[in-house]
């Protein structure tokens, strides 16, 4: 298990490859939710704190460099996961409070756009969820 802090500004090889948001979370505060700024120790003071589990399995059975390749790919996955969650918090005012129907529509548009760029056909699942995203306590 790896605990990630979206408020820390880590700079390693993968963060430069993947890209990095320019949001300073020690200064950022959401106008819609009042969440932020994320100062040192914010995880102990904030309730709730998001917990996400992601299982990543990489097997590179190549003698001599397989282990190094696996570690490099895991570091890239970690950087991608961290940056995705940083963006999710940084863009909170754009999506917080949207009805689930609108969220699903944006998800489908994003999926369709990515598949078009990759030259794949879109697989659209029909999920009927119309609940609004609930308001939760602020940090």
Textual characterization of the structure:
Pfam families: IP_trans (PF02121). Residues 109-139 are annotated as: Disordered. The protein folds into 2 domains: 13-96, no CATH class; 98-139, no CATH class. It has helices spanning 13-18, 42-45, 66-90, 92-95, 100-118. It starts with 12 loop residues before the first helix and ends in a 21-residue tail after the last helix. Mean pLDDT is 82; it is low at 126-136. The protein contains 5 helices and no strands. The chain has 139 residues and is an all-alpha fold. Helix content is 42%, strand content 0%.
Q: Concise description?
A:
By secondary structure, this protein is mostly helical. It has helices spanning 13-18, 42-45, 66-90, 92-95, 100-118. The two termini are 24 Å apart.
SSE order and pairing:
Blueprint: H1 13-18, H2 42-45, H3 66-90, H4 92-95, H5 100-118
Low-confidence stretches: 126-136
- Number of DSSP E strands: 0
| Inertia-based shape | globular
Helix run count: 5
**Oligomeric state of shown chains:** single chain
Could you list some keywords that capture this structure?
mainly alpha; about 140 residues; 2 domains
């Amino acid at each position: 298990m790896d605990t990630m802090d979206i408020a820390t500004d880590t700079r390693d090889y993968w963060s430069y490859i993947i890209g990095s948001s320019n949001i300073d979370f020690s200064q950022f505060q959401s106008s819609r939710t009042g969440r932020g700024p994320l100062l040192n120790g914010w995880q102990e003071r904030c309730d709730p704190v998001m917990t996400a589990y992601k299982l990543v399995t990489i097997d590179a059975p190549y003698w001599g460099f397989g282990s190094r390749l696996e570690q490099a790919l895991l570091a890239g996955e970690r950087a991608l996961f961290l940056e995705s969650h940083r963006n999710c918090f940084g863009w909170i005012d754009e999506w917080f409070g949207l009805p689930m129907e609108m969220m699903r529509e944006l998800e489908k548009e994003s999926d369709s756009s990515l598949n078009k760029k990759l030259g794949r056909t879109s697989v659209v699942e029909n999920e009927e969820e119309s609940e609004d995203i609930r308001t939760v306590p602020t940090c």
